[in-house]
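can u do me a favor
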């Protein structure tokens, strides 16, 4: 799980150093808040709670909800998550860095790469799909 937080932690540490280098207090606070916001956006907290790949596949088979394979720090995953808004919670999210079975499922879909976001919906899959494509599948 530590691997998921390294980028967020790096942003906070950079924010501390940049803030310490500022002469004006308001500039220091502003820079620190900017880096803190970046750290939050790059953390796993922005995404819905991850489930294990086996559990997501089992549940998806019964209820037809899509599975989104993602990893922290991926800007394309973040873009997809933010563009989905509250409907993102209707999909199953699998963090491939914390679940080797999820990483294997992505490699099976992408031909050996761990390219994310990879979305597997009932009978189709897409790598880095357009958010509107996934939104349509979430409405079903």
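np, heres the sequence
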């Amino acid at each position: 799980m530590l691997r998921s937080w390294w980028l967020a932690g790096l942003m906070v540490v950079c924010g501390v150093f940049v803030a310490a280098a500022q002469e004006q207090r308001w500039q220091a606070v502003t820079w620190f808040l900017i880096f803190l916001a970046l750290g939050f956006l790059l953390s796993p907290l922005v995404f819905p709670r991850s489930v294990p790949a086996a559990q997501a596949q089992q549940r998806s088979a019964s209820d037809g909800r899509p599975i989104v394979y993602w990893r922290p720090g991926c800007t394309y995953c973040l873009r997809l998550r933010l563009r989905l808004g509250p409907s993102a919670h209707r999909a199953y999210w699998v963090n491939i860095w914390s679940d080797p079975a999820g990483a294997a499922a992505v490699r099976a879909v992408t031909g050996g790469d761990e390219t994310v976001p990879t979305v597997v919906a009932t009978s189709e899959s897409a790598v880095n799909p357009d958010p509107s494509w996934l939104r349509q599948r979430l409405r079903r």
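The chain has two domains: 2-45, 48-139. hope that helps!!
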